[in-house]
Amino acid sequence: MELRKLFEIQDELDLYIEKIHPREEGEKRLEEKILALQTELGEIANEWRQFKFWSNDRKPRTEQLLEEYVDGLHFVLSIGLEESKRYGQSVPIMIGLPEKLTPIHYETTIQQFNYLFFEIGRLYDSVTLHEVATDTEVEEAYENIIRMFIGLGEKLGFREEQIIEAYTRKNRINHERQENGY
User: Fold this and answer.
1) What Cα–Cα distance (Å) separates residue 37 from each residue in 21, 51, 132?
2) What is the four-CA torsion angle of 17, 20, 25, 30, rounded to 10 degrees?
3) In a 3-state reduction of DSSP, which class is residue 17?
4) In 3D, which of 153, 162, 168 has the Cα closest to residue 74?
5) What is the pLDDT of the chain when averaged over all its residues?
6) What is the rounded end-to-end Cα distance, in angstroms, of the chain?
7) CA gap 27, 32 in Å, rounded
8) I need a surface site. Which of 4, 43, 69, 155 has the fewest CB within 10 A?
């Protein structure tokens, strides 16, 4: 997946949101973004539905699933931008992400979700200094998240073009929401 362009589009949205909703003193926006990503990941799982062994309705809700996936992608990209600013860069690829990332795939979609939740938690732990973490550990956790998230999209059956189109559409909606006082 071509990430550079998506990071640039996300950076425009993040800067616009920062202008409308400036950070308050002491606000830990990165922590908020990590929680938002975990929330979106849960919403993706909820629309996927196949883990719901207690339900007769386990068919994925494809349209909502793609929308939730790109909502999650917004936060994956935004977290990378947030972290890259520590290094004085505007695009995370400049701090070590390769131009083309190889997705990480686990055997099952359940494993894909669970390990992605785990890796997001590891990133949270690293960036909030609950553990003594090096920049390399933070970068490694973030790279794993983005590779696992891309792998999740593939496991869910989404094509790259589909994701980019849905992301671009949702990004426009997010700009409109900000303009309308969301």
Assistant:
1) 19, 20, 23
2) -10
3) helix
4) 168
5) 89
6) 30
7) 9
8) 4
> Dihedral (C-alpha) 38, 73, 82, 106: value to the nearest 10 degrees?
60
Cα(49)–Cα(40) distance, rounded to whole angstroms?
14
What is d(CA 40, CA 113) in angstroms, rounded to the nearest whole number? Answer: 12
Dihedral sign for Cα 65, 157, 30, 13, please. negative
Residue 35 — pLDDT band, cuts 50, 70, 90? very high
Least confident range from 138-142, 149-153, 173-177: namely 138-142
In 85-134, which residue ranges form alpha helices assigned H by DSSP? 109-127
Question: pTM of the prediction?
Answer: 0.91
Given a contact cutoff of 8 angstroms between Cβ atoms, the answer to whether 158 and 112 are in contact is no
Task: Convert the pLDDT of each residue in 90-148 to its tens digit.
Answer: 555 555 566 678 899 999 999 999 999 999 999 998 888 655 566 778 888 898 999 99
Domains and CATH numbers, the chain: 3-179 (1.10.4010.10)
CB atoms within 10 A of CB 133: 17
How many Å apart are CA 4 and CA 34, to the nearest integer?
Answer: 21
With a pLDDT cut of 90, the percent of the chain lying above it is 68
Distance of CA 169 to the CA centre of its chain: 16
- Answer whether residue 66 shows pLDDT above 90: yes
